[in-house]
């Protein structure tokens, strides 16, 4: 007869009773009182909702970004009456762009959307003012290569500096701050440049005839000259100038009154020059952005701005932070502009190729 399915077989061992699960949570007794020592369930974290949001953080950073944009846009409104503060800011105005990546980094660290958006404004302003300087505008061609260099009156190796400049391929070479080494420059350059003229501490050397040389009265001692270079493409008037130095001190600020007065005298000489094809070269001890030099910069065009690549910074030679050595023109077209390798001077030489 068949054995029932639910009956144990005679040969099957009985199943041992299940052991109690010691890890199982005890079921609460519905009738028991609540245990005061029991751990309450965690409450939801509301700190994220109550902390300042991404649009409320970084207001100080946003304020600094807006201030930087205002300085770039309104530098002309910074007064020059006290310590020539306006000229000081304008001399180093391109460096205000460094504020943009620094402020952006601060905005990202703070996770501030407000600051991040605010940093866009100084970035756009800087690009509108100086973005074109980052482009390479150099082109081939040209009829005349001009080089200018402040050779430093304390230059320990004037002959070596002169040889380097002669090897630059310049057709016209202007030197400033000649000093006691003038004779050494004349002897070293004589083989390359048969024509030259020196007035005080500035001089002009040329492959082509030079005449009508005279001193331009801009200072108590000769620091500028005017001459005519007879190129194969016709005469070109060349001015060589070394404006007076500027100083900075915490007490008096940016002392530039003597330089500014010299710039106005030089500007008057430029306005009186009858020949349209005119080139002004030299050490201006100031940048194109400095409003105090507008008497000489506004009627002329910068070779570096029109035909250079980058800012072409020239001083100090070891780590240039400003372009204070310039080649300015009218009546001719700059085709290319560049800085030359360092010499034993504290300035870098600058060069330009001009189409007459």
Give an overview of the whole structure.
This protein is of the alpha+beta class and 356 residues long. It folds into 2 domains: 56-132, no CATH class; 144-355, Deoxyribonuclease I, Chain A, CATH 3.60.10.10. Helices cover 28% and strands 22% of the residues. The protein has 10 helices and 14 strands. The strands form 3 sheets. The protein has a 6-stranded mixed sheet with strand order 3-4-2-1-14-13. The chain is elongated and about 95 Å long. Residues 1-52 are annotated as: Disordered.
Write the layout of secondary structure elements.
Layout: H1 47-50, H2 59-73, H3 85-91, H4 99-110, H5 113-130, E1 144-150, H6 158-166, E2 172-176, H7 182-189, E3 195-199, E4 202-206, E5 210-215, E6 224-231, E7 234-242, E8 247-249, E9 253-255, H8 257-272, E10 278-283, H9 294-297, E11 301-302, H10 303-307, E12 325-330, E13 333-339, E14 350-355
Parallel strand pairs: 1-2, 7-10
Antiparallel strand pairs: 1-14, 2-4, 3-4, 5-6, 6-7, 8-9, 10-12, 11-12, 13-14
Strand order of the largest sheet: 3-4-2-1-14-13
CATH C-level label of the largest domain = Alpha Beta
CATH architecture of the largest domain: 4-Layer Sandwich
Structural class: alpha+beta
Main sheet characteristics: 6 strands, mixed
What is the CATH topology assignment of the largest domain? Deoxyribonuclease I, Chain A
Shape summary: elongated
Strand content: 15-25%
């Amino acid at each position: 007869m068949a054995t029932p399915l639910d009956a144990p077989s005679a040969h099957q061992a009985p199943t041992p009773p299940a052991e109690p699960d010691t890890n199982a949570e005890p079921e609460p007794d519905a009738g028991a009182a609540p245990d005061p020592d029991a751990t309450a369930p965690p409450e939801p974290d509301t700190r994220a909702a109550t902390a300042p949001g991404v649009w409320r953080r970084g207001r100080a950073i946003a304020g600094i970004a807006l201030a930087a944009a205002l300085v770039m846009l309104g530098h002309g409104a910074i007064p020059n009456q006290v310590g020539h503060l306006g000229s000081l800011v304008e001399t180093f105005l391109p460096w205000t762009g460094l504020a943009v990546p620094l402020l952006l980094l601060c905005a990202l660290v703070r996770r501030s959307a407000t600051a991040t958006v605010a940093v866009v404004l100084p970035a756009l302003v800087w690009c509108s003012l100086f973005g074109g300087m980052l482009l390479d505008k150099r082109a081939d061609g040209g009829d005349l290569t001009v080089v200018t260099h402040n050779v430093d009156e304390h230059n320990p190796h004037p002959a070596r500096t002169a040889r380097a400049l002669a090897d630059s391929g310049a057709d016209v070479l202007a030197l400033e701050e000649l000093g006691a080494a003038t004779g050494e420059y004349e002897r070293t350059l004589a083989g390359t440049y048969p024509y030259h003229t020196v007035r005080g501490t500035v001089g002009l050397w040329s492959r082509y005839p030079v005449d009508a040389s005279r001193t331009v009265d801009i200072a108590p001692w000769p620091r500028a000259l005017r001459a005519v270079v007879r190129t194969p493409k016709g005469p070109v008037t060349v001015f060589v100038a070394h404006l007076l130095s500027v100083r900075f001190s915490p007490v008096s600020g940016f002392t530039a009154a003597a330089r500014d007065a010299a710039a106005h005298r030089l500007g008057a000489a430029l306005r009186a020059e009858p020949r349209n094809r005119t080139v002004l070269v030299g050490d201006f001890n100031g940048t194109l952005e400095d409003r105090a030099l507008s008497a000489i910069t506004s009627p002329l065009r910068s070779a570096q701005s029109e035909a250079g690549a980058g800012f072409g910074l020239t001083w100090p030679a070891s780590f240039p932070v400003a372009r204070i050595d310039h080649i300015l023109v009218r009546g001719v077209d700059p085709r290319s502009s560049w800085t030359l390798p360092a010499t034993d001077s504290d300035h870098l030489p600058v060069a330009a190729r001009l189409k007459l």
